[in-house]
Amino acid sequence: MPIARRQPRDRAGLSDAAAPPDMSPLDQKLGFRLRLAQQTAFEAFHRLMSPLGLTPGRMGVLLLLEANPDIRQTALAEALRIKPSNLTVLLAALEAEGLLRRAEDAGNRRANLLRLTAAGRALLTRAKAAEAEVERQLTESLTPAERAALIAALARVAAG
Amino acid sequence: MPIARRQPRDRAGLSDAAAPPDMSPLDQKLGFRLRLAQQTAFEAFHRLMSPLGLTPGRMGVLLLLEANPDIRQTALAEALRIKPSNLTVLLAALEAEGLLRRAEDAGNRRANLLRLTAAGRALLTRAKAAEAEVERQLTESLTPAERAALIAALARVAAG
DNA sequence: CTCATTTGTTATGCGCCATAACGTTAAGCG
DNA sequence: CGCTTAACGTTATGGCGCATAACAAATGAG
Predict the structure, then answer these.
(1) Closest nucleotide to residue B71 (Cα to C1')?
(2) Does the predicted TM-score (pTM) go above 0.85?
């Protein structure tokens, strides 16, 4: 019987393998938690919406176009909180796919009036159902009241 | 009294200028609210931390290195929830700036043991103060209880 | 008409994330 | 022991979201 093994395998000394790292410096930071939650949200969105060829930005365009026919790009970019330069690229792709139309404003030839095509409306119908499932999965561990409080709190953070 | 101007300037017909777009399709969506809040958080972080040469990712490395000296890169990447391949780039820059040291593990020559340098610790001291101000600005419209509830809700969303 | 503004486009870069391919070192196993 | 598999890290590449700057075209004000 070996004398020397008084504490067999009980890790009394220095760890030699998997001591879990101390994450306490990060886990109460709002920025870190926002990043993780947004990453989860993006993954859920991608999982369910990429079969429809939609990213969050593209979906936002379609939704706001349905609610605001003949909107100008500047106004749409403002509503989406993105820069007009980035919207240009989004719109070019969506138009090339036949989901929307950019028509010149007769009264202001600088402006493009945006409108969904029939194909765009058809896609949006399917997309709304998929998007509802995304929201459901994301908030399935929250009560409706907690979900509402979360959204309200996020809105206040974003408002500054 | 002019007869013809029955409804002077009341926009009874088509709008000719700034009808505010209908954002209702987006404003209750968790994904959209997460994006806006995270964008605000990133802007606040950048405003106060970029003078110190820090991004969120770099700050996370420094914080976890202080709490976990001699951690391996794989464990650090897991704790930060980033991929080891992306951590490599972060660490190379931080090491080139003299903020941390990558020492070969004597008992496992594959692994790098990470440790802050004196310069890294000095920077981190200043960075913590600035980061506290970031958190303060972000949550200044929330009560402490609301802030805690927000972080808890975000953690549950991220947990799936 | 001239000049400043509005509207949209293009180009470029950063931060973060992911995957794939690779070299090196260590560990498992016959 | 030698072979195979796994762990650890690096490099390269691409996507997404965001930002700025420089630009062209059309409009409106003086």
Answers:
(1) D8
(2) yes
Mean pLDDT of B78-98: 95
* Residues above pLDDT 70, as percent of chain B: 88
Q: How far is B1 from chain A (nearest CA, A)?
A: 32
Residues 6+ apart with CB under 8 A from A123: A52, A53, A54, A62, A99
- A103 strand-pairing partners: A113
Q: What is the 3-state secondary structure (H, E, C) of chain B?
A: CCCCCCCCCCCCCCCCCCCCCCCCCCCCCHHHHHHHHHHHHHHHHHHHHHHHCCCHHHHHHHHHHHHCCCECHHHHHHHHCCCHHHHHHHHHHHHHCCCEEEEEECCEEEEEEEEECHHHHHHHHHHHHHHHHHHHHHCCCCCHHHHHHHHHHHHHHHHC
A124 CA – D11 C1', rounded, Å? 41
Residue (of B48, B75, B69) closest to B130 by Cα position: B48
**Domains in chain A, CATH or no CATH each:** 51-134 (1.10.10.10)
Give A20-56 pLDDT, tens digit per residue.
788 888 999 999 999 999 999 999 999 999 999 999 9
Taking CA atoms, what residue in A is nearest to B141?
A: A156
Alpha carbon A20 to its chain's center: 30
DSSP-derived 3-state class of residue A41: helix
Contact (Cβ atoms closer than 8 angstroms) between residue A77 and residue A57: no
**Among all chains, which residue has been given the structure tokens 């002019």?**
B2
CA distances (Å), origin B160, targets A37, A42, A50, A71, A139 = 9, 12, 19, 37, 8
Strand D close to B39 by CB, under 7 A: yes
Average confidence score pLDDT of chain A? 86
A55 nearest nt, CA–C1': D16
Angstrom CA distances, B107 to A45, A50, A58, stand at 44, 46, 51
Q: How many CB pairs under 8 A join A and B?
A: 179
